[in-house]
Amino acid sequence: MACSCLVSQERAAQDQRSRQIDKSLQQEKAKRKGLVKVLLLGAGESGKSTFLKQMRIIHGEGFGEKDRLEFRNVIFENYTISATKLVRALRSMNIPWGDAVNEAHGNLVEAAGSVDTPEEFAQYMPALEALWQDSGIRTAYTRGNEFHLGDSTGYFFGKLRQVASSDYIPSKQDILCARKATSGVIEYCLQIKKVPFKFVDVGGQRAQRTKWYQCFQEVTSILFLVASNGFDQMLVEDRLTNRLVESINIFSSIANDSCFSGVSIVLFLNKADMLAEKIKHRSIKDFFPSFPAHENPHDLANVQEFLIDLYNMQRRDKSKLLYHHFTTATDTNNIRIIFEAVRSTILENNLKDLVLF
């Protein structure tokens, strides 16, 4: 009799645990049902992490003092890395120093290790300032497309003295312009107008792309970001492949993957401001001979139309529209307006699956 009671109690406990597990699974399923999962894809330095920062600024909690202090160290590192690249480019391109004294400054910055405090950064400020004013370094800077120079180099060197002050705290714009390569998978969840969004950012460099497939489950939409100004630049990874060609190849594999047959893909042709400036003195036709002969490679509208066509022609199934926007990820107002349109499109296209209304 005692044995029978004991078995009954164990069975009742098992049944209760089973019900709790079923309830948890149902709750998790319901939670996922209304979740908008947005995958950020694209080649390295296309602006995925910057876009994620904008979502945090526009719809999230922003960046507190602790976050800003962490970005301060990133910015210090951006200076020494950019200066080192400029010095090495000057040498490899056989560009003469404007002032021979600056070669010693170049050696000093090249040997710089980790810079973690304003006091340490201040020690390098005179050398950095002298280098930036050197005519040889400026010549190397104008040829930044020939080596891997960060897009925000000019922005930060233009405010060097401010950054070198002992009480410097990065501004919102400084954080947006700071460059730190993404490694691994970064997820950011937030509520946007009472709808839960999960943004997933994965590194864009070739070595990081093996991690993409682990993020492909239950994707609502893909934002594919492109550095539209990269038509005259080569990859960091091999120095042989054109950055825009690499981006097009990645897009082709994503757009034609059966995993995403029902997923809306939005093309963000990013760095539109830099594209507009670059085509004034660079011809895209020199790098993409297929650019139409009857169109002007220095006309922004012509170049933008050509870029859209390059991506659109990669899609085997053109029954659905390719949503596209020219964006400037460092411009908060630009991203606020464009993402509102994108958000509406995502919700409209997935209304049945999300059960939001």
If you had to describe this structure to a student in words, what would you say it looks like?
With 357 residues, this protein is α/β, with parallel strands linked by helices. It is built from 14 helices and 6 strands. Helix 10 links the parallel strand 4 (221-227) and strand 5 (264-270). The N and C termini lie far apart (55 Å).
Short description:
The protein is an alpha/beta fold and 357 residues long. The protein has helices at 2-33, 48-58, 65-92, 102-110, 118-133, 135-142, 153-157, 160-164, 172-177, 243-255, 272-278, 300-312, 332-349, 351-354; strands at 36-41, 185-192, 195-202, 221-227, 264-270, 323-326.
Q: SSE order, as H and E?
A: HEHHHHHHHHEEEHEHHEHH
Separation of the first and last Cα atoms: 55 Å
Specify the structural class: alpha/beta
Number of helices: 14
Roughly how much helix do the residues carry, as a percent range?
Answer: 40-55%
List the quaternary state of the chains.
single chain
Order of neighbouring strands in the sheet with most strands: 2-3-1-4-5-6
Gross morphology: globular
Contiguous uncertain segments of 5+ residues:
22-31
Largest sheet: 6 strands, mixed
What is the β-strand count? 6
What's the rounded overall pLDDT mean?
88
User: Strand percentage, roughly?
Assistant: 5-15%
Rg from alpha-carbon coordinates: 25 Å
